[in-house]
Amino acid sequence: MTVRVLVAAWVVATAGCRNPHVDGDPCQTASECVGSTCVQGRCRHACNATADCGRSQVCVEGGCVPAPHGSASSSASASSLSVAGTGTSSVAASSSSLGGTSRTSAASSGPAVTAAASSTAAAKSSSTAAAGSSASPASSWSSSSVSAESGSSGCAPGTAECDGNLTNGCEDIATDPARCGDCGRACSANNVAAAACAAGECVPTCVAGFYNCVAPAVPLPDDGCETDTTTSIDHCGSCGRACSGLNVAARDCSAGTCTSSCDLGFANCTAPSAPTEDNGCELPVGTDSAHCGGCGNACERWLACDQGAGVQRYCGCSNHNECGPGGGACISGLCLCRTECRPGETCDHTDQCTCNGRPSCNVVETCCARPAGCFDLTIDRYNCGACGRGCAPGFTCSNGVCACASGRCLSGGTCTSGRCVCSGTTCQPGERCTPSGTCG
After folding, report:
1. Domain range holding 146?
2. What contacts 188, CB < 8 A, 6 or more positions away?
3. Is residue 317 part of a domain?
4. How confident is the model at residue 19 (pLDDT cuts 50, 70, 90)?
5. Residue 221 near residue 185, CB atoms below 8 Å
6. Co-location of 140 and 83 in the same domain
7. What are 228-259's pLDDT values in tens digits?
8. CA–CA separation, 391 vs 325, rounded Å?
9. CA-CA distance, 336 to 351, in Å (whole number)?
10. Same-domain pairing of 141 and 86
11. Is residue 147 part of a domain?
12. CA-to-CA distance for 238 and 275, rounded, in angstroms?
């Protein structure tokens, strides 16, 4: 009688879970299951971080459930699911080696992770490993091939999970111009003839006259072929080739050649082409009789570039014999024929003042050999203060000094009393504002 009562009591106690390890009887609470726990409405064998499930099972919410067909083994799946008692599942931080590169995936919390998702993630990892081995980028990638945008993990170097579809493998971010270096980072079409991506960097073919000099690094947006090397003073003719500031009033680039205006007494005569480094206004012309004030402005006949005062002299005489065959006299550096000549003039065989064999200049002009002719050096912006000395584009010449005009100081500068003001600094005459906000 006593034995029958005990057996009946055991049957009642276990009525909700006759064999929790096999049949998965229905339940509402864990108390209805003996030696097991209630998971998703069924009695299941209890599991945790140290107690594994059997083969073809996975640990979900602290209980063993059958793994979907084709999933990873229970031991592999269990490591990616949470221990019972939380009510939710989190993908634990894990580290694996793929294609010779170590990757670490960051933990993320969310709704319960099913065994099917774990199986799909395992398949995803296998497909990305194959992709990484066949398309490894040329440059060195970080140890974690994780897109900052998508937050994906488990991808081989040069790839990232970009489309949110775990079934199609990781996407190429090493050579795809639509996602170069990161998900959603497309190579710009700005002045681009043909877009291309190599090792996660945009390497476009540019339209004529433009180059990709800046090449912003990931994650900054790409800017295409942003630099006009025909006009940029910092990239004149080629990337990184800056116009020199040596003896320069205002740096300038035209057609890829540095055409800077010069300080008085210097000239830009060699103007080397890219890729040769620019040398600014390299030639002193203050007293050079072959280049008096400007390139190639040679003094006529016996005159020399040694008359006048200041930095820049002019072509004149120092004795009577230097005024030519007409028999003129030299007075205060100027030849005196029948009339007083202008700087640079001599006497012809009729004792008339002549400018390079042409008629004499008027009283406010100077005789120049290059450019040939008579010019007023006090107001001519192409011959300002000296023969052949030009001012910066848009500037004028006032009393032999280059002066700015409104809107011609560039880079946000203002023009005040003929001089540019750059970032609060008043520039020297003839200077304008550079892209960095300085004078020059």
Report:
1. 135-228
2. 195, 202, 204, 221, 222, 223, 224
3. no
4. very low
5. yes
6. no
7. 999 999 999 999 999 999 999 999 999 999 99
8. 37
9. 9
10. no
11. yes
12. 7
Residue 84 lies in a domain: yes
Q: How many structural domains is the chain composed of?
A: 3
Least confident of 156-160, 322-326, 345-349: 322-326
Domain boundary among 228, 252, 281: 228
Is 385 inside any structural domain? no
Instruction: Give the per-residue pLDDT at 40.
Output: 67
The DSSP secondary-structure symbol of 292 reads S
| pLDDT per residue as tens digits for the range 422-440 | 999 999 999 999 999 999 9
Beta strand residue intervals within 170-293, DSSP E: 171-172, 192-194, 197-198, 201-202, 205-206, 210-211, 227-228, 248-250, 253-254, 257-258, 261-262, 266-267, 283-284
Residues 150 and 76 in one domain: no
- 47: its two tokens: 């599991």
Asked if 224 and 165 sit in the same domain, the reply is yes
CB contact at 8 A, 93 and 105: yes
Domain boundary among 116, 151, 168: 116
Q: Which two tokens stand for residue 98?
A: 């793929």
Q: How far apart are CA 319 and CA 336, in angstroms?
A: 11
Cis geometry, peptide bond prior to residue 219 (ω within 30 degrees of 0): yes
Cβ–Cβ < 8 Å for 105, 91: yes
* Statement: the pTM of the whole predicted model exceeds 0.70: no
Instruction: Give the integer Cα–Cα distance in Å for 205 and 209.
Output: 11
